[in-house]
């Protein structure tokens, strides 16, 4: 029985998902993980339901627009934001009342391209964490010190 060799990990600056290249080398994006990390799952700073603003990318993909996070893909380090990065898919009608033809839906974008948007001060912000009296940990806006979690 052949012994499986663990692929050597190489890092790239490009925001790519992890993939194995020719020669058994794993190519991992530095944008997603820290070098030397044993856990190659990126940490995503936003949650489902947060309002975010797209900070980088093309105008077509939605730079400068705000939207609500519909879902977070933690294994890929991506988020799906409402109304941002719209893609068109040709779909067949699966049920008699189903939708068919060209369907527009949101595509995933890298979480590093979005920033949390505070509804209190109307600014993009980083977050701080604070433990309340009841022992609950909440996220707080760095600008206006208002709690982000409801």
List the helices and strands and how they pair.
Blueprint: E1 8-12, E2 19-20, E3 25-29, E4 51-54, E5 66-73, E6 78-81, E7 86-91, E8 101-106, E9 109-110, E10 114-118, E11 123-125, E12 127-131, E13 137-141
Parallel strand pairs: 1-3
Antiparallel strand pairs: 2-3, 4-5, 4-10, 5-6, 6-9, 7-8, 10-11, 12-13
Walk me through this protein's architecture.
The termini are far apart. A six-stranded antiparallel β-sheet has the order 9-6-5-4-10-11, with no helix packed on it. Strands 1-3-2 form a three-stranded mixed β-sheet, with no helix packed on it. The protein has two domains: 1-37, no CATH class; 51-92 and 100-141, SH3 type barrels (Roll). Helix content is 0%, strand content 40%. Strand 10 and strand 11 (123-125) form a beta hairpin. The chain contains no helices and 13 strands. It is mostly beta strands.
Helix count?
Answer: 0
**Helix/strand/pairing class, anyone?**
mainly beta
Report the sheet-strand fraction.
Answer: 35-45%
- What's the architecture of the largest domain, going by CATH? Roll
How many strands, what sense, and barrel or not for the largest sheet? 6 strands, antiparallel
CATH-defined topology of the largest domain: SH3 type barrels
Shape, per Cα inertia axes: globular
What percent of residues adopt helix (DSSP H or I)?
Answer: under 10%
Task: Give the total of beta strands.
Answer: 13
Number of domains: 2
What value does the average pLDDT take? 83
Distance between the termini: 55 Å
Major sheet: arrangement of strands? 9-6-5-4-10-11
Strand and helix order? EEEEEEEEEEEEE
Low-confidence stretches: none
CATH C-level name of the largest domain: Mainly Beta
Q: Radius of gyration in whole Å, from Cα? A: 19 Å
